[in-house]
Structure formats: structure tokens, C-alpha cells
Amino acid sequence: MALPPSLRLSVTPPELELIACEQLIEIIPLVAMERTAFISGAFGPLRPPAKCKVPIWMAVNLKLKKKCHVVPPDWLNTDFLQDRLTRETTMPEFSQLPFRFAEIAKVLLDVAFEDIENPEKLRSLLKDIQEARQAKSREGLSKIDHSELSLPNLCSMEINEIRPVFIRAMGVLTQLVKDPERQLPQ
């Protein structure tokens, strides 16, 4: 059931996944196909075994029909994610990850797990990274200031998660700055 816009505070995770599916990814087609025009653009031609870049939504569609192999992005491997997890747990700032890493990883691990090396380890690393980054977000929000909040390298899903809290907190801080003697509702 969809909520009316007035009751929604942020975009849902499936909606973020849909947005992320517009990004291009490499595939190895198993069938030949001429260049085909879609609303979002023209893609192809597909000529096996040459790699081709297509939107993730198209790669998912072809993969589900067993007409391609997905080439995972460079960052979707255990070495890279283990390095990012180490950075997240040892450094105070957020490590740099692709803006839509969580959404892309979820879609690819759900649909093309057989094309990805060690998918269960990747799922575990991604979960650990997200938990470490959520802890940093909570810590950052506890130190919120009415004039500035800097959280560089925050990703799409993380921004979406803190948006409702941030909007409310900034509203309260704005009221406090305007009228410091005002009592706030509990």
C-alpha cells in the first residue's frame, strides 16, 4: 500500500533501488541483439562474447532470462569491501563508496549472485559496513548544530535513513535559535 505524499517522510528502499537501476553496468551477453531504443535511451548492440554496458534494469531482465552474465562493478569484491570496513571502524570520517552502493549491491546479489565471487561474504561485509556507517550517522546527529552539519561521503540510502530525524531536529534547533527561552514539547 502506498502512502499519500503528505504522510511519507522519505523515499522507500525499493524506490531507491529502482532509481539505482538506471546506472550502467557491464554484461557479457549470451545472445545477439541489435541496438534497441528504450525510453531511457538506446542500448546495444549485444554481440557475444564482447562486453557491453547496459542499465542495471536491463541487465537484471536479461539475467533472469539467462541471456547474459553480469560483470560486477570493481568495488563489489571482498578485498575492496574489507578495506572499507577497516576504514569505517578505525577512522572517524566516512570512507568513500559509490553513492548508491547499497542499492546496487542488493540488486546484483539478489539476481546475479552466481556471477559474483563469494556472495555470502560480500553480504556479510556490506551489512557490517552499513552498521558501522549507521553508528557514525547516529553519532553525527547527536552532535548536530543549527548552523552546519557536515557528513561527507554519505550515500543515498544513508541520507534517506537520517532525513526524517534531521528535518525534525533542524526544525527544533531553528525554533531554539529564534526563541531560546521557549519550552519545547517533550
What does this structure look like?
The protein is mostly helical. The protein folds into two domains: 20-71, Ribosomal Protein L9, domain 1, CATH 3.40.5.50; 73-179, Up-down Bundle (Methane Monooxygenase Hydroxylase, Chain G, domain 1), CATH 1.20.58. It contains six helices and five strands, in the order αββββαβαααα. It has helices spanning 13-20, 56-64, 78-90, 101-111, 119-142, 156-178, and strands at 24-29, 36-38, 41-43, 52-55, 68-71. The strands form two sheets. Strands 4-1-5 form a three-stranded antiparallel sheet. Helix 1 (13-20) packs across helix 4 (101-111). The chain is elongated, with a radius of gyration of 21 Å. The model has no long low-confidence stretch (mean pLDDT 87). Its main location: nucleus. Keywords: Chromosome partition, DNA replication, Nucleus. This is DNA replication complex GINS protein PSF2. It is found in: Nucleus. Pfam families: PSF2_N, Sld5.
Distance between the termini: 31 Å
* Cross-sheet strand order for the largest sheet: 4-1-5
Task: Please give the count of helices.
Answer: 6
Low-pLDDT segments: none
Number of strands: 5
Stated plainly, the CATH topology of the largest domain is called Methane Monooxygenase Hydroxylase, Chain G, domain 1
Question: Can you tell me the CATH class of the largest domain?
Answer: Mainly Alpha
From the alpha carbons, calculate the radius of gyration and give it in angstroms. 21 Å
Mean pLDDT: 87
Major sheet characteristics: 3 strands, antiparallel
**Overall 3D geometry?**
elongated
H/E topology pattern: HEEEEHEHHHH
